[in-house]
Every structure is written in structure tokens, then in C-alpha cells.
Design brief:
Its EC number is 5.6.1.6, 7.6.2.2, 7.6.2.3. It contains 41 helices and 22 strands. With about 1300 residues, it is an alpha/beta fold. Strands 3-6-7-10-8-9 form a 6-stranded mixed beta sheet, with helices on both faces. Strands 16-17-18-13-19-20 form a 6-stranded mixed beta sheet. The protein has a 4-stranded antiparallel beta sheet with strand order 12-11-14-15. The radius of gyration is 39 Å and the shape is elongated. About 40% of the residues are buried.
Length: about 1300
């Protein structure tokens, strides 16, 4: 394992939390150095601390795995199904139970604190300036309040940190087990699950463990705490407390109901979102075609339709959220209103100490009962479902492979023996049986020797090209060089920026298909094994490279080893020692090439016809299901061994533009843009007013209680004084006890409660409405802007990046951002309310508040710098875990054939550990911040408590109660508000990214003032006049000074080497990017008319035929311009009528994603049918490079010659036989016109490019091409010879009207 796949991590720092002292652990001081670095520069992965040994993926995974294995064993003995939950509980119960003690202590403090508060207020109610003992006691209570707030701050965050880490451990262990299982799945098990499902287990299901551990303890703490609170309230206010509790109990199922409804809407929304993203995916991948067909409008309608449905569901779920938040906001007020109304009506008198003890107790229990307890139930049920899904996966079949060590002698004569084998097979399954992947139904497979394998779908894993080829073996430079040369990779390596150390992206994104196939082959060749199984390695590369691979590699470097080669390129069979022909799973024939020729099996008939074309065509045709398998052994004829790798054409590797990532904070103008997208200015002012009203009524509600209690107190005092004086005189009895005007006080109290409810609900709903509206507006703007941007944008930005804007960023705007924003505004206003109330009671409290505020702002900025980086690193380190899993699943056979499971497991653990490092920092940094914030709050509470005692002479009991009970609520709320503000800022980057895409440059307008005549172009004359063309203003000029004319009804072939500018000619004609110079079609200057007017008048058959999800009819005729008979006729002409009639709903059949249920050939024919339907005078064919089978090809050629006789046809050709009988051929070279004349004329010039191209096809082919060209030339009517234009002396173009 010395040279593993690249080390995933450079030198990491040891984790300081392992050696930190107690004080540092409580306050998370050990993180300070990290924050210091983070404030100076961007954090990188090297700055992260090592994983603690007990959090290592390998250790945790193996520990849980052993418990699970025991459970499976026990279950099989007891004949029951194994339970994964049991294994998890056995593994983790000890450490988790200890954390329960933390929760218990924390909740006890929460309940005791209001009692201290009540005692303190009582001192003010019975205030006696001379009673010193009472004063000291009061100081004790004030200290109790401050200490309990401080205790809460410290305990709460320690508890949270530990439960989240417990969740993290379970998640890591689960991931390790899932991956370990994935590497062992048998073929049958793979059939029962999909890659997507396994990745889903790893990305979604295991995350439930992170959440469930947080809330689990509240299942028992919640009920206990509620009981304790009821007991204390009973002492204070008697049975009235039950009324309030009843409301609380009633609110619980209400919130659960909201949650149920909400998830129902969510799942409906998700379905719409999926289909919108799918459509977007097609629009973005097929944007070239959509633009060339001018089909933007039907697609816009399609997306807008789905989006409208999606938004209506999102709106409903947002309203639910608004109701839920408003009910949470007003719940406290309703509970208090009910409690005290009952209390007063029963005939009790209100007093400050009672009121505020009740207020504090209710708010202590409210969080637990309405938030944590239901959350615990919900998370437990969610994780139960996830555990069930993971268990189902862990119980799938495993593959058992027998490894028999071999002696040296055996290695010399390595063999594969197969007897009476029955498998469900074609060629690939034969190989997989030999590999031991597919179980044989019956029969024997004996393998002597080490196997190695190159899969049919080339497989590369993320890493450098070198690590992909070495695959864990030592680097031996000489052998490595020879392998590279044999696999034709030498030239590619020289072209790549970092040679063989270039990093291949996820799924080999940076390599072309041919390069991937060659790397895949090189990996197998490098592994010095005894038997080579090569599954069709030649199909992904072009003929020239294919021949090189066959001669240099398969029959060169491997010539002394047994090889089993699967291929359908029959030209290579002559070199084989033994050939097996398989057809639909049966062996039709076997023997050497000459034996098979004599026996006349059906494959040879294919070969005879093809011998002539053999050199030039990449893939020989094959009869419907017959495929061939050739096996060459020791002595294979090495054909030409001259090293051809120098002349092989090199492939161009695309470079992508860097993703823009904005640094720093977000400007106010962005918020303004965001809000203005959803509502007009008047509406926004109304919203501000509503927010203020809601918050004011919220505070007045409590203030009124305090005022009422104070009035009652004054009354009690005065009446007791009067009573005592009167009592001495003894004249009147004590019948003058004054009563407060109850209806007045209760009425205003009820009114305030009502106002709080109304404003609270209105504010929530209207804000959600506005924010969802702006999500809708921004999406539509972005979508329209994307449709109108030039194609160049899609060439430099990968699909994933554009789709990310439409999936992730719009997802944020739709659901997360509105909720976070509303929550933030609510909490923010409440914090201001707390400070306002406190300062109205003790004005000088503002003096310490200012330094606290400044410290807080500094702390927030300091924290966010680091936290943003940590978050960024966390998300970037998460993706390798998934991509490693999905690439391992794709290359499962290869990994097992190379026996590399152990190494891949280690790499997975390393990826996990890297993510854990980031996750660990993510957990601890947020706790570091929260502890400091809550510390500041407890300072504020302390100042308030002792401040009241210092000013005891001027204080009324009600005010003290109000100020203190409010200050205590600041504890959790303040840090929550700050965290939400950071979240809002983070999510505003999504808004920023969306806004950035709403302001893309747009191409020329679709329609202009100047409309061409309706029957234009009626002749089809195309003139290029000194045209220069480049894809971007600063890019290289691709077409240089092109002047040419395509006459009406002329058939012109356009040929040239790769990169000569053939496709650019078409792009210029369609104005995919604006060309310089003039292009005229029937005398109309193309640059003056609208793009749709231009593009709808030219038909194109594109290189990669694209079908879109939707009905067959929509694919042929998205504007509904044609009648059914027209459509059927078009289909009949391309011989697809039968195929479409077999579909369940004929023309109305929905196609699978991007038409994948049609073959490439059939898709090409659909494109041809589109062109027939359009009946345009100009047809452009960009010939498919993918090998369409010859029958389809012939059919397309025939249809074009006959249906488009009256049209001007331009064909970009890759195969010369399709255009050799054209009227003229335009030869491009490096962006200039090299030759332009009839093919026969061009072939007379032996130095011309065209002549050389014809010669390269091979002797037989070249002869037949020459013959065809001559014949076509002789048959042509002389009228065509008139050369529609003459060239003047200076080489400019003069068009003769006569010739037209």
C-alpha cells in the first residue's frame, strides 16, 4: 500500500481538543488559533485538525459491523429477522445514556430559574427600606438568576456538542458498513438495487442519525418537565394553570397536523420540481438544437407550465409554514390570556410575582413541549424508516469468490476451461462468468492463473491518469512508457496540461470517450497478469486508433499471454487463434478464421460484404443479435509493428470557465432587488408597518399585565391603610374595600391578545407571499435570460453548473430562504423588544448595552469569516464520499477482478475522515460562537437583575418582573437570531447567483422590424461575402475571410480535417454567434432579420440527434402546425411508421428521458422527419459521427436525394462515400477555403487535400470513390456547369443576375 491512490490529505495538524484542559473544553478555547488564522486568510483543507482517533471511520465502522454480525448470527440461530436497531443500541447505549444526565440538569435549572425570579419580585412587592435581611436574601435570588443563566449557557452547548458528535459517529459507522457491503454485492443483489438508491442511502438516510440523537432525550425529559411545571404553577395560581396547560396540549397535535400537511405538500412539490429539473436538463443539453430549430417558445411554455404548478404547491406549503410560525409566536400570549382570565374570573387578585413566575414557567416548558418533544417523535419515526431501508440493503446477497493461490509452474500455462456452461449470456456475460461475477446455472468454469479485465463501458475513478493506470501497483518507468505507447496515450499525455498527472474529474469528465477507453485498457495491460479478458475495448475509438491498439497492444505487448477479446469489429478476426460466434446466448460456431470461412456460418457473410470497407469504417454492421467473440493465444500474427503513435491525431481536451464565487458580504441593493421582485414599494412599506404593529402589540400584551398588577398593588396598599385608620375610629365597618374595574382591564387585555394574533398571522402570511412571489419572478427572469443568451455561454459553462442554479439555488429561494428570512425578522424584532422593555424600566441599562453590542458585532464578523470557510470546506469534502461510492459501483467488476476492494475501502475511509474533520469543525465552531453569545446574554441578565436591586427605591414590582422575564428569554433567542442572520446572508448568495444569470448578455432579437417576405427563401441561394467568424470577441478567428456561393438546388459537401471550421460555417449561417461580413440568403442580408425568422426557414439535421421528453407529436411538431396525416406521411417516408404504430398511444406516447427508448439510428430518422415536415428550401446536414448502422445511413441518403431534390443541401461529411456524388465539394483547411469544385475535378489534383483524404481510406475504397465521382460528373447536365459567379481581379465577388 506504499503508493496508494493519491494521498487524500497533506500533513494534518493533531487535534487540540484531545489535550485541552477542562476550562478550554467548556469554553471551546482550543479553537482560538483556528479563528485567528481564519480571520487573516481563507481557510484551506490543510488548516483542519486531524480526526480524533475515536471518530475514525475504520474504527467506528468495524466496531458497529462486529455488533451487526453478532446480531445476524443470533437471529439465524433463533430463526428471526435480524434487527439493525438492536446492533446500534448495543453499540452506543452507554455513551449516550451519560448525556441524558446533562439534559436532566439543564431542564431542572430551567424550572428553578422562574422560582428565583418570583422570590425576587416578591421582595419588591413587600418592599420595606429598613429590612436588611430581606435585601440580602434578594441579592441571593438575583445571584441565583444570574448563575442559572450562566449554567444554562455552558451546559446547553456542551450537551449539544456531544449529542451531535454521537450522531456523527453512528452516521460514519453506517456509511462504512454500506460501502463495505456495496463492494460485496452479487449480481442478483445488484439487480435488486440501483446506484442511485445506494447513493441515496449514503446521502439522505444516514443523515437522520445526525438529527435523531439531538432530540432523543427529550422523549423522557419532556413529560417530566411538564409535570414539574404544572406542580409549581399549581402552588402559585392554583387550578387555573390547568386551563393554560390545556391550550398547550391542544397546540401540540395542531402542530403535528401542520407538519403532516406540510410533508404532503412537500412530496407533491418534489414531483413537480423533479420534472422541471428534468425538462431544464433537456433544454440545457439540447440548447443548440432548440436554437437552430427556433423552438424556444414551446419549451418556455413547457417549463413555465410545470413551474406554475410547482409554485402553487410551494405557496400552499409556505402559507402552512406562516401559520405554524405565527401560532408559535402567539401561543404564549393565548396561554397566558386563558390562564389569567380564568384566574381573575374565579375571584383571585392578580399580583406581579404570580404573573411573571407563570410567564417564565410557561416559556420554559413551551419550547420542550411544542418543539422538542414533537420533533423527537418525528425524527425517531423517520430514522426508523431509514434504518429499515439500510437493513434491507445490508441483508442483500454477497458474492463469494474463491481465491486459490497458484504455483509458478501453473502460471506458465494459464488456461480457461468451460464445459457445458449454461448462463443467460451474451459475450459480456461469458466474461463475467469467467471473472466469477455471474453464477453459472450449471457446468464448470475452471480458471488457472491471475485474471485481469478491461470493461466494455470504460471506467475511470476520480484521481490522476497515472493512478488510474497503475491502480495500486508500483511505478516501473520503462514498462509504464511502453504501455502508454501501446495504448496510444503518449500524444494525449503531451497535450494535457499536467501530462499523466492531470486530475480526471468525477466520471472522467476531462477525458473524451476514446481517451477513457484507452486508459481503461492501459490499466489492464499494466497489471502483468496471466489471462487478459478484454470486453470490446476497440468500439469507443476511431478506426485508425483501433488498428494501432490491436497491433501494438493486443497483438504486440500482450502477444505471449492468453487473451479473450470480445469485439464486433470483424476486420480483426483474421489474427485470432480461435473464434467463438455467439448468437442470443448460444454458441453458433468455433474454430479458426479459415475453418469458419469454410463452414459458412452467417457471420462470414457479413464479413465478405465488408472486406472492402474494412479499413475505413469503424464498426462493421452486424446481424440483429449475433455478436462475435474472438480469442487469441500465444502466437498471433503481428501485422505492422512500426510505431504509429506519432501520426495518430491528438484529441482536444476542453477547458471550462472557472465558477464565479463572490467573496465578502452582500450589498443592500441585492436585498432590495430580491424584495422588489416580489412586491411593489407600497406593499413593502405596508409590510414594515405590519411587522412593527405585531411586535408592539406583543410587548404591550405583557406590559398591560404588569400595569394591571401594579395598580392592584397600589389599591391593596391604600385600602389596607384606609382600613387600619378607619378600624381605630370604629365608625364605619370594613365595607369600603375598593375593587379594580375588572371588565375594563380584562377587555383591554383581550383586545391586545386579539391584536397580537391578527397582526402576527397577517404579517407571516403576507411576508411568505411576497418572498415566494419573488422566487417565481426571479426564476422566470433567469429562465428567459438563459434561453436568449448566445450558445457560447453553454460551451464554456458545464451543464451541472447551470442546472445547479435551477435546482439548488432556486430550491433555496423557494422554501428555505422565505422561512429563514421571516424567522430572522421575527427574532430580530423580539430582541429589540427585549432591550426596549429593559431600558424603559431602567434607562441606564443602555450604558452597558452599547459595549456589549459593539463586542457582539465584532464577534459576529470574526466568527462568520471562519464559519463560511468551514461550511465551504464541509460541502466540498462531502462530494468525494459520494463520487467515490458511485464510481466504485460503476467499476465494481474491475475492482473485484483486480482484487482492489481493501484499497478502495481504505480510500473511502480516508474520504470519510476528511469530511469528518470538516464536520467536526463545523459543529465545534458554531458551539464556540454560541457559548460566547449566550455568555454575553447572561451578562445582560446579571446587569438587569442587580440593577433592579440597586435602584430598589424607585422600582415597581411589575416593571421588575417585566424586565427580568424578558431578559431571561434572551438566552436561546439571541444566538438563534444571530445564527439565522448568518443563514440569511449565506442563502442570499443563491439570490446573487440567480440575479447574476438574469443579467446575461442576450443574442439578437427573435423578431425585428424588418420581416422577410412570407415565401422567402423561394430559391435557396446562399452567399458568403468575406465572412470572418469567432466564438467570442477575444477568441481566435475560426473562419478567415470566407467568400463562397451555394447555388439554388445545389448539393454541396463540406469536408476538412478536425478543427478546419466545418461546423463553424453552419454556426455562422445560423448566427449562433454573430459573424463579421455579409451572409445573404436569396438576397436578404441575414444579420438584419430576427433570429426566429432566419432559423425557421432553414432545416438542419444535427450531429447528435436529440429527442425531448414529451409526446412523439411534440417532438415532430411542437407548434401544432401540421395535421395528423402530414405527420404520418413524414414518418412513413423515413420508415418509422411501423415503429411508432407499435407504441401504446401512437403519436401521443410519452418518450422516455431524452428519447432513450429509441436507437441512435431511429433518433436520426426522427430528425429527418422533422426536416421533411418543415418543407424549407435550405437543408443542412451535420453528419452523425456516431456509427449509425449502414441500413439507416443508406435510407437517409436516399430520402435526401429524393425528397430534397428542389432544395439547396449542404452536408458536413465525415465519411466520403456519402458526398462523393455531390455537385460540388468545399474543402476547408484551418478556416480558409482550400478548394471548391466538382469532386471529379478536385480528384485530378494529386497534391490537393481532397485527393489525399480519398487515398487515406484504403486502396479498394479509394478506387470505388474515384469511379463514383467520375460517373456523377459525366451524368450531370451541362446547365449545372455554369458557374453562378465570376471572380474579379482583386478576388472580390460579383454575382451575375443572369446566372440566377
Amino acid at each position: 500500500m506504499a503508493i496508494d491512490m493519491e494521498p487524500i490529505k497533506k500533513d494534518a495538524k493533531s487535534n487540540p481538543s484531545a489535550t485541552a484542559n477542562l476550562f478550554s473544553l467548556i469554553f471551546f478555547c482550543w479553537l482560538n488559533p483556528l479563528f485567528r488564522i481564519g480571520s487573516k486568510r481563507r481557510l484551506e483543507e490543510d488548516d483542519m485538525y486531524n480526526v480524533l482517533p475515536e471518530d475514525g471511520s475504520k474504527r467506528l465502522g468495524e466496531e458497529l459491523q462486529s455488533y451487526w454480525d453478532q446480531e445476524v448470527e443470533k437471529a439465524t440461530k433463533e430463526l428471526r429477522k435480524p434487527k439493525l436497531t438492536k446492533a446500534i443500541i448495543r453499540c452506543y447505549w452507554r455513551s449516550y445514556t451519560v448525556l441524558g444526565v446533562f439534559t436532566a440538569i439543564e431542564e431542572v435549572i430551567k424550572v428553578i430559574q422562574p422560582v428565583f425570579l418570583g422570590k425576587l419580585i416578591m421582595y419588591f412587592e413587600r418592599y420595606d427600606p429598613d429590612n436588611m435581611a430581606a435585601l440580602y436574601e434578594a441579592y441571593g435570588y438575583a445571584a441565583g438568576i444570574s448563575l442559572s443563566t450562566l449554567g444554562l449557557a455552558l451546559l446547553h452547548h456542551l450537551y449539544f456538542y456531544h449529542v451531535q458528535r454521537a450522531g456523527m459517529k453512528i452516521r460514519i459507522a453506517m456509511c462504512h458498513m454500506i460501502y463495505r457491503k456495496a463492494l460485496r454485492l452479487s449480481a442478483t443483489a445488484m439487480g435488486q438495487t440501483t446506484t442511485g438508491q445506494i447513493v441515496n442511502l449514503l446521502s439522505n438516510d444516514v443523515n437522520k442519525f445526525d438529527e435523531v440523537t439531538i432530540f432523543l432525550h427529550f422523549l423522557w425529559v419532556g413529560p417530566l418537565q411538564a409535570a414539574a411545571v404544572i406542580g409549581l404553577l399549581w402552588q402559585e395560581i392554583g387550578a387555573s394553570c390547568l386551563a393554560g396547560m390545556a391550550v398547550l396540549i391542544f397546540l401540540m397535535p395542531l402542530q403535528t397536523m401542520f407538519g403532516k400537511l406540510f410533508s404532503k405538500y412537500r412530496s407533491k412539490t418534489a414531483a413537480f420540481t423533479d420534472s422541471r429539473i428534468r425538462t431544464m436538463n433537456e433544454v440545457v443539453s439540447g440548447i443548440r438544437i432548440i436554437k437552430m430549430y427556433a423552438w424556444e417558445k414551446p419549451f418556455a411554455a413547457l417549463v413555465n407550465d410545470v413551474r406554475r404548478k410547482e409554485i402553487s404547491k410551494i405557496m400552499s406549503s409556505s402559507y402552512l409554514r406562516g401559520l405554524n410560525m405565527a401560532s408559535f409566536f402567539t401561543a404564549n400570549k393565548i396561554i397566558l390570556f386563558v390562564t389569567f382570565t380564568v384566574y381573575v374570573l374565579v375571584g383571585n387578585k392578580i399580583s406581579a410575582s404570580r404573573v411573571f413566575v407563570a410567564v417564565s414557567l410557561y416559556s420554559a416548558v413551551r419550547l420542550t413541549v411544542t418543539l422538542f418533544f414533537p420533533a423527537a417523535i418525528e425524527k425517531v419515526s423517520e430514522s426508523a424508516i431509514s434504518i429499515r431501508r439500510i437493513k434491507k440493503f445490508l441483508l442483500l446477497d454477497e458474492l463469494v469468490k474463491s481465491h486459490v493461490p497458484l504455483s509458478q509452474e501453473d502460471k506458465k500455462d494459464a488456461t480457461v476451461q468451460i464445459q457445458d456452461l449454461i448462463c443467460y449470456w451474451d459475450k459480456s456475460s461469458l466474461l463475467s462468468t469467467v471473472l466469477g461475477e455471474l453464477p453459472a446455472e450449471k457446468g464448470v468454469v475452471k480458471v488457472k492463473g491471475e485474471l485481469t479485465y478491461a470493461s466494455q463501458q470504460p471506467w475511470v475513478f476520480p484521481g490522476t491518469i497515472r493512478s488510474n493506470i497503475l491502480f495500486g501497483k508500483e511505478l516501473q518507468p520503462q514498462r509504464y512508457e511502453s504501455v502508454l505507447r501501446a495504448c496510444a496515450l503518449k500524444r494525449d499525455m503531451e497535450l494535457l496540461p499536467d501530462g499523466d498527472l492531470t486530475v480526471i474529474g468525477d466520471r472522467g469528465a476531462t477525458l473524451s470517450g476514446g481517451q477513457k477507453a484507452r486508459v481503461n485498457l492501459a490499466r489492464a495491460v499494466y497489471q502483468d497478469a496471466d489471462i487478459y479478458l478484454l470486453d470490446d475495448p476497440l468500439s469507443a475509438v476511431d478506426a485508425e486508433v483501433g488498428r494501432h491498439l490491436f497491433e501494438q497492444c493486443i497483438c504486440g505487448i500482450l502477444k505471449d499471454k492468453p487473451r479473450i477479446l470480445v469485439t464486433h469489429q470483424l476486420q480483426y478476426l483474421k489474427a485470432a487463434n480461435q473464434i467463438l460466434v455467439l448468437k442470443e446466448g448460444h454458441m453458433v460456431a468455433r474454430g479458426t478464421f479459415s475453418e469458419l470461412l469454410r463452414s459458412g456460418v452467417d457471420f462470414t457473410s457479413l464479413l465478405k460484404k465488408d472486406e472492402e470497407e474494412e479499413g475505413e469504417k469503424g464498426e462493421a454492421p452486424r446481424s440483429p443479435r449475433s455478436r462475435t467473440l474472438s480469442q487469441n493465444s500465444h502466437s498471433s500474427s503481428v501485422l505492422s509493428v512500426k510505431d504509429e503513435s506519432d501520426q495518430l491525431p491528438a484529441e482536444h481536451v476542453h477547458t471550462m470557465a472557472e465558477e464565479t464565487r463572490t467573496e465578502g458580504t452582500i450589498g443592500l441593493h441585492l436585498y432590495w432587488k430580491y424584495f422588489r421582485a416580489g412586491a411593489n414599494a407600497l406593499m413593502l412599506i405596508l409590510l414594515m408597518l405590519l411587522n412593527l404593529l405585531a411586535q408592539t402589540s406583543y410587548i404591550l400584551h405583557d406590559w398591560w399585565l404588569s400595569y394591571w398588577a401594579t395598580e392592584q398593588e397600589k389599591l391593596d396598599i391604600s385600602s389596607s391603610i384606609i382600613n387600619s385608620t378607619i378600624g381605630t375610629n370604629g365608625t364605619f365597618g370594613n365595607n369600603t374595600t375598593q375593587e379594580l374595574n375588572l371588565p375594563f382591564y380584562l377587555g383591554i387585555y383581550a383586545g391586545l391578545t386579539g391584536a397580537t394574533i391578527i397582526f402576527g398571522f397577517m404579517r407571516g402570511l403576507i411576508m411568505f407571499n411576497t418572498l415566494v412571489n419573488s422566487a417565481e419572478t426571479l426564476h422566470n427572469r433567469m429562465f428567459n435570460s438563459i434561453l436568449r443568451t448566445p450558445v457560447r455561454f453553454f460551451d464554456i459553462n458545464p451543464i451541472g453548473r447551470i442546472l445547479n442554479r435551477f435546482s439548488k439555488d432556486i430550491g433555496h429561494l423557494d422554501s428555505l430562504l422565505p422561512w429563514t428570512f421571516v424567522d430572522f425578522i421575527q427574532v430580530f424584532l423580539q430582541i429589540i423588544g427585549v432591550i426596549a422593555v429593559a431600558s424603559s424600566v431602567i434607562p441606564w441599562i443602555l450604558i452597558p448595552v452599547f459595549p456589549l453590542l459593539i463586542a457582539f458585532l465584532f464577534l459576529r464578523r470574526y466568527f462568520l469569516r471562519t464559519s463560511r470557510d468551514v461550511k465551504r470546506i464541509e460541502s466540498t469534502t462531502r462530494s468525494p464520499v459520494f463520487s467515490h461510492l458511485s464510481s466504485s459501483l460503476q467499476g465494481l467488476w474491475t475492482i473485484r477482478a483486480f482484487k482492489a476492494e481493501e484499497r478502495f475501502q481504505q480510500t473511502f475511509d480516508a474520504h470519510q475522515d476528511l469530511h469528518s474533520e470538516a464536520w467536526f469543525l463545523f459543529l465545534t465552531t458554531s458551539r464556540w460562537f454560541a457559548v460566547r453569545l449566550d455568555g454575553m446574554c447572561s451578562v445582560f441578565v446579571t446587569i438587569t437583575a442587580f440593577g433592579c436591586l440597586l435602584l430598589k427605591d424607585s422600582m415597581r414590582a411589575g416593571d421588575v418582573g417585566l424586565a427580568l422575564s424578558y431578559a431571561v428569554t434572551l438566552m436561546g433567542m439571541f444566538q438563534w437570531g444571530v445564527r439565522q442572520s448568518a443563514e440569511v446572508e449565506n442563502m442570499m448568495t443563491s439570490v446573487e447567483r440567480v440575479v447574476e444569470y438574469t443579467e446575461l448578455e442576450s443574442e439578437a432579437p427573435w423578431e425585428t422590424q424588418k420581416r422577410p417576405p412570407p415565401d422567402w427563401p423561394n430559391r435557396g441561394l446562399i452567399t458568403f461575402d468575406r465572412v470572418n467568424f469567432s466564438y467570442s470577441s477575444d477568441g481566435p478567428v475560426i473562419l478567415k475571410n470566407i467568400s463562397a456561393m451555394f447555388r439554388p438546388r445545389e448539393k454541396v459537401g463540406i469536408v476538412g480535417r478536425t478543427g478546419a471550421g466545418k461546423s463553424s460555417l453552419i454556426s455562422a449561417l445560423f448566427r449562433l454567434t454573430e459573424p463579421e461580413g455579409k451572409i445573404l440568403v436569396d438576397g436578404v442580408l441575414t444579420s438584419e432579420i430576427g433570429l426566429h425568422d432566419l432559423r425557421q426557414k432553414m432545416s438542419i439535421i444535427p450531429q447528435d440527434p436529440v429527442l425531448f421528453t414529451g409526446t412523439m407529436r411534440k417532438n415532430l411538431d411542437p407548434f401544432n402546425q401540421h395535421s395528423d396525416p402530414d405527420l404520418w406521411n413524414a414518418l412513413e417516408e423515413v420508415q418509422l411508421k411501423a415503429a411508432v404504430e407499435e407504441l401504446p398511444a401512437k403519436l401521443e406516447t410519452e418518450l422516455a428521458e431524452s428519447g432513450s427508448n429509441f436507437s441512435v439510428g431511429q433518433r436520426q430518422l426522427v430528425c429527418l422527419a422533422r426536416a421533411i415536415l418543415r418543407k424549407n428550401r435550405i437543408l443542412i446536414i451535420d453528419e452523425a459521427t456516431a456509427n449509425v448502422d449502414p441500413r439507416t445511413d443508406e435510407l437517409i441518403q436516399k430520402t435526401i436525394r429524393y425528397k430534397f431534390k428542389e432544395c439547396t443541401v449542404l452536408t458536413i461529411a465525415h465519411r466520403l462515400n456519402t458526398i462523393i456524388d455531390s455537385d460540388r465539394i468545399l474543402v476547408l483547411d484551418a478556416g480558409r477555403i482550400h478548394e471548391y469544385d466538382a469532386p471529379h475535378v478536385l480528384l485530378q489534383d494529386q497534391n490537393g487535400i481532397f485527393y489525399k483524404m480519398v487515398q487515406q481510406t484504403g486502396k479498394a475504397e479509394a478506387a470505388s470513390l474515384l469511379q463514383t465521382a467520375k460517373q456523377a460528373y459525366m451524368n450531370r447536365s451541362p446547365v449545372h456547369q455554369l458557374n453562378g459567379f465570376a471572380t474579379t481581379v482583386d478576388g472580390s465577388l460579383v454575382i451575375f443576375e443572369t446566372a440566377l
